[in-house]
Design goal:
Elements: E1 2-3, E2 6-11, E3 16-24, H1 35-49, E4 76-77, E5 80-84, E6 90-92, E7 98-99, E8 103-104
Parallel strand pairs: 1-8
Antiparallel strand pairs: 2-3, 3-5, 4-7, 5-6
Length: 105
């Protein structure tokens, strides 16, 4: 998918149409400093300790990649970030499109 490097769009912070630079952000994955790294895992584990549903066998199942009839998707969704040239604030796109490659001209 070919896209221009800059585009004119509405900036929520300046409250007017300004020139924005476009960047395709890539997902780096969860790590130590990520907000959902520790909290989500400990919350799921604690569910298994109390009375009730438990962890639904989440920690005894194999990884989904080793399941039968589970394949990797061919394309990833775009994660475009628009940075305003006047106030240098960044806003994201609402919905991503599935593309193999994003090329800025």
């Amino acid at each position: 998918m070919k896209m221009p490097k800059t585009t004119k769009r509405y900036c929520r912070y300046c409250k007017k149409h300004t020139v924005h630079t476009i960047k395709n952000q890539s997902f780096k994955g969860l790590n130590k400093t990520h907000t959902m790294s520790r909290g989500a895992k400990s919350r799921v584990k604690s569910r298994g300790l109390r009375r009730g549903v438990g962890n639904l066998g989440r920690f005894s199942k194999k990884a989904m990649g080793s399941w039968k009839r589970y394949g990797k998707k061919q394309t990833k969704k775009t994660d475009l970030r628009y940075t305003c040239k006047e106030c240098s604030k960044t806003s994201m796109q609402k919905k991503g499109k599935r593309t193999k490659k994003v090329e800025f001209k």
